[in-house]
User: Fold this.
Amino acid sequence: MSESNSSYAAFVGIDWADQKHDVCLIEGERHELCELRHTPEAIDAWARDLEDRFGGRPVAVCLEQSRGPLMHALMKYSCLALFPVNPKQLSRFREALGPSGAKDDPRDAWLLAELLRHHHPRLRPWKPDDGPTRRIRLLAESRRQLVDDRTRTGNRLKALLKEYFPLALTLCGSRVYTESFLRLLARWPSLNALRRARPQTVEHVLFAGRKRPENAAEQVAAIRQAVPLVKDPMLIEARGLAAKALVAQLRALNGAIAEHDQRLEKAMREHPRADVFRSLPGAGEAIAPRLLAAMGSQTDRYESAAAVQQYSGIAPVTRQSGNSRTVRRRRACPRFLRQTFHEFAQHSIGSSRWARALYRLQRQRGKKHHTAIRSLAYKWIRIIYRCWQTNTRYNEPQHLDNLRRKNAPLLAYLDP
Assistant:
């Protein structure tokens, strides 16, 4: 074993699957192949065996994911140094050693072990954030998934109502997720059922929890004059039952999202760096935890702001060969991370003068909307990185003063 490899007792590559994993262990010049069942008992016995076999010395483990059941299962063993790699890295390494394109699971496990043995100084070992930060990250990711589920379910409900009960969409407008509208649709899933209800009851249910418009009584009275889209009783019955099922799903998702919001608010109150991200204009209660989780608790994780820009996918990719030079959007990146910075930059336009000016400048130069947003996110990452490193709240007037001292071009686009 070379001097650079002496810190690890062995190198392990794991090609993971749903039921079993192919494992290759390299110790010196000896290679061992085996299969590991994906059960808590089998994984625990395998990890304990490695710890006993090598006397507690660290064992480097390479696998193709940074999340997922196998990664989470291996996190608890202190003797394992985990090196997650991008699947594209393994694919390129496979093509470099075997251009024929042949592929099987045991060979991929061996390739992962070889990649780790020869190139582990270039790979980034996985280091977990502290408990409070991991809690916020997991809650923020789970919340976003629930919001996406609610959006899909809401779109299904809208499409369903357009088939047999379009008046309901007129009543709710864009508020298809509100509890008052869902309660109304659960009680009266069709126009005929809604017509039979007392106008005072409909008005109370429809506008519960929000300010009644001046023409509320007229809106409710218009229900009785509404022309039904369809009169087929079988269609109305089937679609009504489906609508009630979707309403139940949306109400459950609303409750789950509200619970996540409460947990996130509590976690942010207890986190020592939460104020840094709450001070960012436009972050809000949903985006601030995501930004905190994106940066993490380890200030040495990223060497510079450029590393964050590249890893998140905000920085573009430049390809140059001879006289040919192209710049395109980076696609090989964590999508949730890229989405976090992109959404924050878009929200900041309404709360930050210089962000709004930079967006106007980019649009004036002919950039499309999302290209201008990525440019803004690129600038924001530099600011966020500095605040994160120094644990300092963002100061908008101070940043504007810095722009004036530099005579930045976007000053001409500032609001008066």
Remarks:
- Residues 275-319+327-413 form one domain.
- Residues 1-5 have pLDDT under 50 and may be disordered.
